[in-house]
Amino acid sequence: MPTIIDGKKTSQDIKNEIAARVAEIKSEGGKIPHLAAILVGNDGASQTYVGAKVKACHEIGFESTLVRMEDTVSEEELLAKVEEINENPDIDGLIVQLPLPKHISVEKVTDKIKPEKDVDGFTPANVGRMALNWPAYVAATPYGIVELLKRYQIETSGKHCVVIGRSHIVGSPMSILMARNGYPGNATVTLTHSRTQNLKEIAQTADILIVALGKPEFVTADMVKPGAVVIDVGIHRVEDSSKKSGFRLIGDVKFDEVAEKASAITPVPGGVGPMTIASLLYNTLLAAERKVYG
């Protein structure tokens, strides 16, 4: 059996570590970290995500502010709200939950967030700093994956890492992080995507396979080298009448058959997913303690 890389347990460990630090800050009379989230509209998944983030803040002793705006809000009004939070010295981190309504430019909104409050790691300043291997807020999912590799002591130096998917949120930053000079890193990285020819053959050469394509159970056992480490970033709901909820969650990897070949693998659910909130909280702690931007 492979090692199951348990994101649920690891994320709880990180939250416990952050809570201990918050308790120290409180006892020293310091400033409690404060995360603000802006939620536009009534998208069900977005409400669930933001609710989980707010709940996690309270669990570890952070302060949090949730700003709700109608999906009819103008771009100008949203940008003004971002600017207001930028200028509020009490708030350390700001996230604007995506997706946004079609009439609002994600680029404009992201660019408006002050880099030192951008705990999602999406602004050009933080992406650029990450690429240069400078102190930066790394996007939550890539940071979560890096932390899992580190805590499970998975060797990355000199390994061939294949990333499937080139999104700005996961695939592209993962390729940079795995190639950088450090640990986890120093891997030889191949970044693949929907236009890659002989993707199967390339995937078969991976010592570490990171799958963030957004296609349910895309990676099958015949694409995986025996003994590979497999990180599954995908999450999909599929109907399942045997479940009380009527659905079950699956990833981009066909878990049961790939697990038989892998040396270590993340499950879905309970793998990469829980790490994203822990990473966001960690970035907010860094912001409150001025660890990145001084």
Automatic annotation (TrEMBL):
Domain Tetrahydrofolate dehydrogenase/cyclohydrolase NAD(P)-binding intervals? 140-291
Instruction: List the signal peptide residues.
Output: none
The EC code for this enzyme is 1.5.1.5, 3.5.4.9
Q: Mind telling me which GO cellular component terms the entry cites?
A: cytosol
Any one Gene Ontology MF annotation carried by this entry is: methenyltetrahydrofolate cyclohydrolase activity
Q: Matching InterPro entries, A to Z?
A: Aminoacid_DH-like_N_sf (IPR046346), NAD(P)-bd_dom_sf (IPR036291), THF_DH/CycHdrlase (IPR000672), THF_DH/CycHdrlase_cat_dom (IPR020630), THF_DH/CycHdrlase_CS (IPR020867), THF_DH/CycHdrlase_NAD-bd_dom (IPR020631)
Q: Binding residues for NADP(+), per the UniProt record?
A: G165, R166, S167, I235
Which reactions does this protein catalyse? (6R)-5,10-methenyltetrahydrofolate + H2O = (6R)-10-formyltetrahydrofolate + H(+); (6R)-5,10-methylene-5,6,7,8-tetrahydrofolate + NADP(+) = (6R)-5,10-methenyltetrahydrofolate + NADPH
Could you provide one GO biological process annotation from this protein's UniProt record?
A: L-histidine biosynthetic process
Q: Which pathway?
A: One-carbon metabolism; tetrahydrofolate interconversion
| Superkingdom assignment | Bacteria
What is the role of this chain?
Catalyzes the oxidation of 5,10-methylenetetrahydrofolate to 5,10-methenyltetrahydrofolate and then the hydrolysis of 5,10-methenyltetrahydrofolate to 10-formyltetrahydrofolate.
As for family, the record states:
Belongs to the tetrahydrofolate dehydrogenase/cyclohydrolase family.
Q: What subunit structure does UniProt give? A: Homodimer.
Name listed for the protein in its UniProt record: Bifunctional protein FolD
Query: What is the species of this protein?
Result: Algoriphagus formosus
Taxonomic lineage: Bacteria, Pseudomonadati, Bacteroidota, Cytophagia, Cytophagales
This chain is encoded by the gene named: folD
